Amino acid sequence: MVLRSGLFSGTIACMNTKDAHTEDADVRLYELGYILVSAIPEEKVAAEVVAMKDIITNNGGTVQTSADPSLRDLAYPMSISREHKKTTYVAGYFGWIVFDGTADTALAVEQAAKKSDTVLRHLLIKRPPLNVNASAKSQAPGVGARKGIKKKKEDVNEEEIDKTIEELVEGSVENTTEKTEA
Q: Is 51 exposed, middle or buried (0-12, 13-18, 19+ CB in 10 A)?
C-alpha cells in the first residue's frame, strides 16, 4: 500500500494496482456525483477533477466518462464543518465521473471524498453496465416509458382521414354561418 497526498488535502491509502488485482477481481461500473465548494477559484476546478480521476486510476480503476463541473445554485444552503469552523454554501460546482473498478477502488474513492475539504457533497453508486451499441431505452429500463404498456399500431386509411377532415371543415363552416345569421 502506498500513502499519497493529493486533492483531498489529506493522506489517503492507495493500493498498488499490480498487487491488488487478481484475475478473480470483480470489476463493476460506478458513478460518482459530486459538488465541489464554490470557494475554489474557477481556474483550479479542473485540477480538482484531475486529482479525483488520479485517485480512481491509482487504485486500479478506469475512468469511462465524466462531465466537467459547472457552477450551480444549490436547492438549499449546505454547511460543512472543517477544523472547528462551519461554512455554509449556496452554490457549488456539480460534476460526475463514471468509472469501473473493484470494490476496493470504490472504497478508496469514497474515503477520499469524505476526507476532502473541497467536496461539499458526493454520492457513489453502482451502475448497470454501459451498452454503447444499444439505444437509451435499453440502457435505462423504465425511464421515459412504462413497462408492460404497448402502443397499438393502427392502420390508417387516407380516405378516412380525408373524410374526417371534410366533416370537421363543414361542421365549422356551418357553425360560423349560423352565428352570422343569428
A: middle
